[in-house]
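note to self — DONT lose this again. spent like an hour looking for the file last time. sequence + predicted structure for the chain T wanted, 140 res
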Amino acid sequence: MRRKGRLKKGETVAFNDGRIIDGKAFLSLPQKGRVVAIFGDTKACLQAVRATQNADVLVHEATFAAGDEETAERVFHLTVSDAAKLALQANVKQLYLTHISARYTEEGQRLMLERQAQTIFPASKVVGDFDVFDTESVLF
């Protein structure tokens, strides 16, 4: 008799040597899956809303400040406002903004970018390399 997948299904499996293993002993309660969408170095596209629809987390590059849409379009990037609009349209839970231009190195400038995004999508946060977040409140 094939045993493949039976433990995973929570079934009891009896072995030829007399051992009996209850698959339920190895299962936990089902957990809701998580959806994380990641966009980098890209400009707005029609498929983005559909691809990120209802994601728990959207990580998106937002190289430029609101008002710099022309520059962003020319170099195939987004502004923080563009990314926030996408998050709002796609009904995501949390937006993490990355790939911020080096012109915004001061903390006050990064805070300004974050606030620009938050005026459109309140659950926006400008993040940096190696930042760590408690996602429990976002994902569940």
